Amino acid sequence: MPDSSPVSRFETCLAIVLGFEGGFTDDPRDPGGATNFGVTRRTLAGWRGITPWQNLPVAEVRALGQPEATRIYRALYWDRCNADQLPTGLDLAVFDFAVNSGPVRAITMLQQEVGAVPDGLIGPKTLNAIKERIALTGVAGIIVALCNGRLGFLQRLAITATFGRGWSRRVDQIRMLALAAARASASSPSQPQKGTSAMNLGFLAGYKTYIVGAAMLVAGIAQLAGVAIPALGGQSAGDLLMQGLAVIFLRQGITNTVSAAVSSTATKAG
User: Which pTM value belongs to this model?
Assistant: First the structure.
């Protein structure tokens, strides 16, 4: 029987991000070098306090486990972006941007979009600027602007010819999923708001996670059968199937490793 416990926004967003990142790769065309769960060799070395980062063997990247990867994502990207305080949907857009291009770039671009000082830190002033922008364009307006700005940045990189198509597809999918999350949150007035004691509850909880994942799978299969699904933003059948599987099959693993990460952090704090 599926786990009916609430799933946090971090868990939901991490499952989506890991669906893009995959396992171990060491593509010589990728300046990030050896990577596992989307964590580069340089990032892992910094996380473990190893300097210079080249002293970390590639074998350590290959052996990286999901529990440690989850702690890295939480500390270096989600918490760094203060994503628990961001509106539902925007949290995913900023988090994935931070993972792909660095938290400072993601945060400063968000700040530029909402008219805040681009200092690379999401604090009270930036959160207030986000609220003011939402009053004018809604959360969707910020999500679309941020994703467009992100895509523009990626298209200017020297390695766009090699990775550009995959990047564009990823940003398009993140835009679609972030907008869907924002709409779902807006249509659920009883949902706890972020910033309260229940701020970690996401728009997908318990069995609803599996329903959404199944819906993506059904939409993907329908497209393979030649049935268009306009409401899903023109995503390909393969993209929908990948996202559906990521949400369904990664949910339980992410839940377990997040719990381990939280326990580990609490132990260190004590």
Answer: 0.71
